[in-house]
Design goal:
Number of strands: 9
Distance between the termini: 34 Å
Strand content: 15-25%
CATH class: Alpha Beta
Radius of gyration: 19 Å
CATH topology: Rossmann fold
CATH superfamily: Vaccinia Virus protein VP39
Order of helices and strands: EEHEHEHEEHEHHEHHHHE
Amino acid sequence: MSETGRRTFDRTKDVAKLLGCNTRNVNYRWSIFSRYLDQIPKNSRVLDFGAGSLRETFELSLNGFNVVSFDLNEATMKAYYADYNWADCSVQPTLIAGSDLSQVTGEQFTLITAFDVFEHLNQPKELLIPMIDLLTADGLIFCTVPNRRTLFEILSRIKWKGGLALGQKFNPGEPHIQFNSPAEWRAIFESSGLKVVEHEMAIGFFVNTWASIVSVITLPARRLVPRLFHRKVEIDRLGVLAGPRVMSVLNAIDRLTEKMLQGLYGWNLFVLSRIKQHQ
């Protein structure tokens, strides 16, 4: 989520997180969300919370769902909205801007998606508890959250803590400020009143770790070269050191060691449901 009106990324040509992601020069694909999505009747109400670039909103709309897209800034959402061709969508999404769920209080959704949201919040439970009230009795929440055990998250925490110590101002919703292990995320969801229906890990240990190392060792060049040439110079932070061939080998190693190292994978994929009142 981004509070400013500026566009921070473009995922119009990327695969929706409902199906996978393209990252670290690896095309990851999963079925954990699509299997449950196939069981939800078309035209059901869906809340895409932290809609960002609207990539998931577009995918859901194409599949016949009635989507409400929620993010911090209306101007940013409208800018991303213009990037898509909505002609093939039977129902176009409703865009709502805000910082809490008060604008949709009283509504009911069969599905709520919250991809890359909870790690940006000071108190995830303060969002989760009212979010549960928006779910139908058999409704589901799809979400992705990072794993604090990875080098990528360790570096993110150092950057955030270091920035705060130096007086750096972060835009709300941009830095990661929650750093939890898979078990800790599960505990947060369950203590909020949710049941973990299914949980998978994605983005392998070796791919994620090597990409983080390369990003760090190429950082000086990425900062120095534009200054030398007095203009913006695009430098691929992965490049040859972590190009598709290198990462495909590391991805193959990740597959061989998945059972041993899964707890160190980069992303948690959760399917959540309400805890029934009689339980």
